[in-house]
Specification:
It contains 4 helices and 7 strands, in the order E-H-H-E-E-E-H-E-H-E-E. By secondary structure, it is an alpha+beta fold. The longest helix is centred in the first third of the chain and has 16 residues. It is globular and about 35 Å long. 30% of the residues lie in helices and 34% in strands. A 7-stranded mixed sheet has the order 1-2-3-4-5-7-6, sandwiched between helices.
Amino acid sequence: MSLHFELDPAITPALREGVLTLWADVSNAGGSVGFVPPVTVDDIRPELVKHFVAMAEGRTRLLVGRDAAGEVAATAFVAFNTHRLMRHWVWLYTVMVHPRHQGKGYGRDLLAAAAEAARGLDGIEAIRLTCRGGLGLEHFYGSCGYKEVGRVPGAIRVAPGDDRDDIFMLLPLM
């Protein structure tokens, strides 16, 4: 069984709560999505609101993967560049698969769906994302076709004395 992906779903209360719950569950399982455990949906809500504002302004698009029960199981936010010299590629942010679904290939499915969505956007030639070092995420993204194109040592402070590299990955779409 695979996930059903939808680009630009209607923002309903159920979707909002589903994304918040996903984000909290991924964070609390140690996922590298902008928070460190423990977090609650109330901690995450302001960040989700920022994403929704960017969506309302046309700067960001939401890709949602739902499981067989219709629950939000995966997300990625596709963000356009505002700089006129960089409008030919997009950022991929907050790439998440619920911990109960990890190990089923859904992360690969999510990245494939994101690439398909980006290919459908006028003038987009590549996807960039960053990931936190120390978790092997760059190897996962690499196995999905992304190439490491840069690394800033110690740029992410997870906790005092626990600094991680910020790794830049690129997926050419052409």
